[in-house]
Amino acid sequence: MDTRDRLIESTRELLWERGYVGTSPKAIQERSGTGQGSMYHHFRGKPDLARAAIRRSADELRDRAEDAFAGPGTVVERIGTYLGRERDALKGCPVGRLTQDFGVMADPELRRPVEETFAWLIDRLTGLLAEGRASGELDPGLDPANMASALVAVVQGGYVLACAAGSATLYAQAVGGALGLLAGHVR
Amino acid sequence: MDTRDRLIESTRELLWERGYVGTSPKAIQERSGTGQGSMYHHFRGKPDLARAAIRRSADELRDRAEDAFAGPGTVVERIGTYLGRERDALKGCPVGRLTQDFGVMADPELRRPVEETFAWLIDRLTGLLAEGRASGELDPGLDPANMASALVAVVQGGYVLACAAGSATLYAQAVGGALGLLAGHVR
DNA sequence: GTCTATACCCAGATAGAC
DNA sequence: GTCTATCTGGGTATAGAC
Questions:
Q1: Cα-atom radius of gyration of chain B, to the nearest Å?
Q2: Position A99 in a domain
Q3: The HTH tetR-type domain covers which part of the protein (chains A, B) (predicted)?
Q4: Residues of chain B contacting A146 with CB distance shorter than 8 Å
Q5: In terms of residue numbers, what domain contains A89?
Q6: Which residue of B has its CA nearest to A120?
Q7: Number of structural domains in chain B
Q8: The domain that contains A157 carries what CATH number?
């Protein structure tokens, strides 16, 4: 991993742990083992570096989700795989947590990848649910868009509850409830 | 409203808008129209003031929720009132957002009110759902604890989605999905 | 590409006058 | 109770040497 890459990876970790406002160039340099000079040679400043880090985290989330969505099994099984995938619930979502970060939301360049990620996720799930409904796997009365939003919300809210309680169990409980929701719509 | 109160209210607003790390004593003083001297006379420092502000926000959330839970109507109606209550979705939850704030979670004094609020909320909802199940209003197969976690998660996740999209509609969609979930369990 | 020196401003707090 | 002065440290960035 070259210097530029180490800077991005360290920034990703720090953004995940402490958010944008709470992450200083100095901390990034220390974690990545690089000096001021290197950082300002490869990036114009903190926002520029954060932009690269956020884009990478967003891409990763998308790829991992797509792995589950495009995998084998029925629509409900694939969504179940996505929801149940082991997650580091106590650390929060590396992308979702940025929506609660003032510094990120105030900068359009930083905000856009976050916005696009959730738009894609909900859209992808909506399509999957519509597909399941069309094939007869799911109840015709199900509203794909509402259900997709609710499912993504349960995941994001599950992180919040787990962080609040200091226990990953809450995440599992919330997802368990959501799976019950979906199961109720299987024909 | 006296000086002490203005300081607490200004801090509440700033914590809501910018989080703990992003809120400086200077900003608090400016918003409340008080000087350094006053702030450090009434409070020992930023953490002390934040503690008072967070406790007040937590109490308010609890009181507003209890209004809905203790109101008239069936269990499902009361929960629907709680979920559907107009919320400032784009500003996020004044308590929930603190779970994603490193500065808050790292300080036990600041963290405790947040933790207690969600524990109370889930517990209260679990009790309500159990009551509905016992009275025959809800399906005997419903798991009150899981469902309570899922409902609170949808609310918290709804805030995340709304912030990400810059549109309160997403919050409404997620809640719509959650209400569908509950409706499916009415006998 | 990376290093060190330097600069400026703000965060957070203390001290003592009024 | 409130004001102003003052202090230390860190955030963020630039300049120029190597």
A1: 19
A2: yes
A3: 1-61
A4: 173-174, 176-177, 180
A5: 54-183
A6: B165
A7: 1
A8: 1.10.357.10
